[in-house]
Design brief:
By secondary structure, the chain is an alpha+beta fold. It contains 3 helices and 5 strands; from the N terminus they run E-E-E-H-E-E-H-H.
Length: 161
Amino acid sequence: MSVAPTRFPDGSVTDPAECIICGLEGAPEEAVVFRDDDWACEVLPGFEVPGWYFLRLRRHALGWGELTRADLTGFGPTAQRLMLALEETFDAPARYLMTFGEAYPHFHAVVTVRGDDVPPESRSGAILALRASRVDRAAALAHVPDVRAALARIRALEPTD
């Protein structure tokens, strides 16, 4: 079932040719955590904070309403594996998976880890306000191989059907 989007806020980018989420298809290998046929996870330029990633559907679907049953079936296990890999990789008390879909309604989730150094008023969704002060491209990219390795270990433990 696909429900056509009826309204997005002014300024929303719905054209795939202008979509920064679609643009992640061209991300350099060093920024790619994983890609399969349907889902991908990368470090997004401008959001290069250690432990912050964009988990996205590889095809341009505008929000939850345009996800297919197969997309939805794949999202749960994919998100779970990624969250487990972050738990294994980072010494952080919390991991967040957030979907918004306003500025760039292409279905994606912003995934972050939250360390003890984050003050209470900057936790949960407010963590995104810390982005500009915490961007460190080299440090963000340095964690990608560790997250990849954790994902490989998690996948290896899954039963095969």
